[in-house]
Design goal:
This protein is mostly helical. The chain has a domain at 22-346: Hydantoin permease (Orthogonal Bundle). The protein contains 19 helices and no strands. It has helices spanning 25-34, 39-50, 55-73, 79-83, 87-90, 92-95, 101-134, 139-160, 162-187, 206-222, 228-232, 241-254, 256-266, 275-282, 288-317, 323-343, 347-375, 405-421, 441-459. Helix 7 (101-134) packs across helix 16 (323-343), helix 8 runs antiparallel to helix 16 (323-343) and helix 10 (206-222) packs across helix 17. The longest helix is centred in the first third of the chain and has 34 residues, at 101-134. The model is unreliable at 476-482 (pLDDT under 50).
């Protein structure tokens, strides 16, 4: 029997029982789109304008990043239905059951970043809209209170688990979309599609800044790579690959709505770097309440999709922590980061740096996972994936002390070379000018992983037991002798 929405989810990262795999690919679409149809994505959409691009160029760079990122992300939906667990645990088939901790690290990096973005921008939007409605400036106290309310509400939803999150995201998809479309009425009269930009590019010239904007947008779909299995594990493996691939891809294409809202409205505010304050100040009074609603619902949606997966995963690394306890621990640490980052450090710069790390660390990990999926023909031993989580040793995916050095020997250089070639305001590697200032870090990290892993597997074949058993030949029946 399916669990009720108000029932606290009892499953950790152990395989979901087949009878409880009752979700469909469209539920995966709702989770992925609902988690991105929020102010967090709107903020990412404002950054190309803050970098100095025109509206047309900002929209083009964003569309490029979203589509490329969606294509890279889509295959990550294939693992959960087969392994019935999350993607970090599934990665044990390729990185080793101990090496799968790489996926857990990526999950933590992404969760802290996007949970912080969601609470930060949603809290600022609530505080700004309240000031617009009631005419008073609550300052740091009001903002801090808004952060606390959204963070606590997000934690509560995560503690209830997948079914409750699915309900929240169903609401977020409909309500968030309606309110953003209503923004056409609120801002349509003042928006100018011919906005030419500031003329001062973040990286000095056009093409390096254009690529920076595309990579900023690409960070959004890539950030879901470690989390798709959290939700796709509830989908039965009988569903067609085409449907599983289409759900996350279409969800990312749909995020062009919040991205577009951010790009368009950023051209209207006096200082795109102080977007939330500028937006609430210039919004019509009647639109202040819808802004509060989309901020609250959106903050819950983005925060839960990122925080839930990390709590789930860390409960497997530290067996003494249940999913609920691990979620509380990670959530508390993230809240501390939010307050320190906003009131002590430069939050925007911190998020930019984290987004760069997410793209350059997660994308080669995803490439290795996808190549491994093809090489194994989608075969996974569900029980042996759980060896590390259950405190055991051995099994198909033990490799060398629990680590598949071939995958690690591809991922580490790919990530390192990407960071060496990165060219962003916060992270600029020593080779950042190798292509005339154009950031080629993503291309370098993807190509390195895509070439190194197959070559290493060819030179040093993986153990035969990680592949599907050869089918038993069916012999023609021979009539029995009389």
């Amino acid at each position: 029997m399916s669990a009720r929405v108000t029932e606290v989810e009892r499953h950790g990262i152990a395989p979901i029982p087949p009878e409880e795999q009752t979700s469909r690919p469209r539920d995966l679409f709702r989770m992925a789109f609902g988690g991105a149809n929020t102010f967090a994505t709107i903020i990412l959409g404002t950054l190309p304008i803050a970098y100095g691009l025109s509206f047309r160029d900002a929209a083009s760079a964003t569309a490029l990043g979203v589509v490329v990122g969606g294509l890279v992300l889509a295959p990550m939906a294939l693992f959960g239905p087969r392994t019935r667990t999350n993607n970090a645990v599934s990665s044990g088939a390729h990185f080793g059951v101990v090496g799968r901790c790489v996926g857990s690290f990526l999950s933590l990096l992404t969760a802290i970043t996007f949970f912080a973005i969601s609470v930060w921008v949603s809290g600022d939007a609530v505080a700004g809209a309240a000031q617009r409605l009631f005419g008073f400036d609550g300052g740091a106290v009001l903002r801090g209170g808004a952060y606390g309310v959204i963070a606590i509400a997000t934690l509560v939803v995560c503690l209830y688990g997948y079914r409750f999150m699915l309900l929240v995201n169903r609401i977020a998809v409909v309500l968030g979309t309606a309110i953003m479309l209503l923004g056409v009425v609120a801002y349509g009269g003042t928006f100018d599609p011919g906005y030419a930009g500031t003329g001062t590019y973040a990286l000095g010239t056009f093409w390096p800044t254009f690529i920076l904007a595309a990579l900023t947008a690409l960070a959004n779909p890539i950030s879901f790579g470690a989390f798709l299995g959290d939700w796709s594990r509830y989908i039965p493996a009988r569903h067609r690959k085409r449907s599983l691939l289409a759900a996350p891809l279409l969800a990312q294409v749909a995020t062009l709505l919040p991205f577009g809202f951010g790009i368009a409205t950023a051209t209207l505010v006096a200082d795109p770097a102080d977007y939330i304050t500028g937006l609430t100040a210039m919004s019509p009074l009647w639109y202040a309440i819808p802004l509060i609603v989309v901020a609250l619902i959106g903050g819950l949606s983005t925060g839960t999709t990122s925080l839930y997966g990390t709590g789930l995963d860390f409960s497997s690394i530290f067996p003494r922590l249940s999913r609920v306890r691990a979620t509380l621990l990670i959530g508390t640490l993230s809240v501390v980061f939010i307050f320190v980052g906003n009131f002590v450090l430069d939050m925007v710069s911190s998020i930019n740096a984290f987004a760069t790390l997410i793209v350059l660390c997660t994308s080669p990990w995803m490439v290795i996972m996808m190549i491994g999926f093809v090489q194994r023909r989608g075969f996974y031993d569900v029980a042996d994936l759980q060896v590390f989580n259950e405190g055991r040793r051995g099994g198909r995916y033990w490799f060398t002390r629990g680590v598949n050095w071939r995958a690690m020997a591809a991922w580490i250089p790919a990530t390192t070379l990407g960071l060496l070639c990165a060219n962003t305001p916060m992270i600029a590697g020593p080779w950042h000018d190798v292509a005339g200032g154009v950031d080629i870090s993503l291309l370098v990290t993807l190509v390195t992983a895509a070439v190194a892993y197959p070559v290493l597997v060819k030179l040093f074949p993986e153990p035969p037991e990680v592949f599907a058993p050869a089918p038993t030949p069916i012999r023609d029946a021979v009539p029995a002798e009389a």
